[in-house]
TrEMBL record:
Organism (species): Glycomyces endophyticus
Stated name of the protein: ATP/GTP-binding protein
Biased composition (Basic residues): 1-10
Chain segments carrying region Disordered: 1-32
Superkingdom assignment: Bacteria
């Protein structure tokens, strides 16, 4: 019989391709952020930071207002998201 290395009292880790959303400060208030892996990226999106396309298979960031219902989600290149504070203030497009 194969040996189990995981203890029974340890909870299972989530196996989702995306990390849990985290809360960060945005220009208009708190923003939920989720990092998407390359395997989880299946569609083409337009990055509001550089106005270029995010191709399928490209790891990127999804951000939306904390008080919203998710309809305002925006997909960002990771570099564009990290540089959002150095861009013109209030421009989320």
């Amino acid at each position: 019989m194969p040996r189990k290395n995981r203890r029974r009292d340890q909870p299972r880790r989530p196996t989702s391709g995306a990390q849990d959303p985290s809360l960060v400060d945005g220009p208009g208030g708190p923003v939920r952020v989720r990092r998407i892996t390359g395997e989880g990226a299946e569609k083409i999106y337009r990055c509001p930071g550089c106005d270029l396309e995010i191709q399928p298979g490209t790891p990127h960031v999804v951000a939306w207002a904390d008080d919203g219902d998710g309809d305002d989600r925006r997909h960002w290149h990771t570099g564009c998201w990290n540089a959002r504070d150095r861009r013109r203030p209030g421009r989320w497009r």
